Here is the input.
Amino acid sequence: MSSQFDFKNKNVVVVGGTSGINQGVAECFARAGARVAVASRSEEKVTATVELLEKAGAQAQGFCCDVRDAEALEKGLKGVHEAWGDIDVLISGAAGNFPALVDGLSSNGFKAVVDIDLVGTFHVMKAAYPLLRKPGASIVNISAPQAFLPMVAQAHVCSAKAGVDMITRCLALEWGPEGIRINSVVPGPIEETEGMKRLAPTPEFIEKARESVPLKRLGKKQDIGNTCLFLASEQASYINGTVIPVDGGWSLGGASELSNQLGEMFKQLTKAGR
Ligand code: NAP
Ligand code: COA
Here is the structure.
């Protein structure tokens, strides 16, 4: 499938781009003509994604790293920069999620999610900064509705993603004067993803999720990819420091309603497991 956007000769890095939504975003940039690099922990997933992007016609590369390891991330990003030059587009979307009530969540469990989502985002921003095109670079952080909607069994994710959106806003102030734009995209419930599997684990809950979206459909990876393409394009050159839900209107009410039902289910499961 071709693209309405033209990212020929642009260097795009998608951290956490080896599965799900972020991989879909990487594919969108590949189809728009960009050179695309991806990074995540699993060598197998990195290799498979590089092959996928090459099949889509892109020049592609990848590196393995855990976003909790600032040095490994820095080394990987420097490698991409040495090969291709300044980074035009940076997508940061590595994240971890599991449903857990605070009563059943250890300090390390809370910390694992905060370290991946929030500290990981900080590491990505910090390591990429000297390698970004100035002026001209565009950064998109992949956030979640948990950033602004409290949800049962999601205290760790809510805390972490709220921080991600605040980093977005702070860096829009700090880096805007150098011509770097940064925005957050907030996906709604996106079909066939790990996030959905973990939070809507049965066909009944998937159907409830679909029903809870005003547009009465789940999102597609392409919906998030399209928004990232737009945000990284010239057409979005005055958009900076925003948090944009791409969720069919889900965060206007349906998300909270569904998360309350999920919360009840996890409470019952937790009680039954005791
Ligand atoms: P996913 O397929 O599990 O994607 C997560 C990606 O991040 C994978 O490439 C994973 O690869 C990488 N990753 C995870 N931990 C990492 C770490 N410590 N260091 C480096 N890379 C790491 O999940 P998804 O559901 O598509 O979610 C993608 C993004 O969308 C996340 O930011 C999530 O919060 C957000 N989101 C998803 C939904 C949804 O409906 N799915 C809704 C709202 C927001 P490795 O395993 O190889 O590390
Ligand atoms: N309920 C409660 N605690 C949990 C848990 C759950 N379902 N899953 C993990 N934890 C806790 C662990 O028990 C551990 O705490 P402890 O040391 O006190 O026992 C802590 O979280 C870290 O677990 P560990 O498995 O060592 O973490 P990891 O760094 O290997 O993996 C995760 C990170 C847990 C976030 C893992 O689910 C992951 O890699 N996720 C990436 C994919 C993903 O979540 N995709 C969806 C994105 S929306």
The chain has one domain: 2-273. The beta strands are 11-15, 35-40, 60-64, 89-92, 138-142, 181-187, 243-246. The pocket of NAP (ligand 1) is lined by residues 16, 18-22, 40-42, 45, 66-68, 93-96, 116, 142, 144, 187, 189-190, 193-196 (CB under 6 Å). Residues 153 and 266 are 7 Å apart (CA to CA).
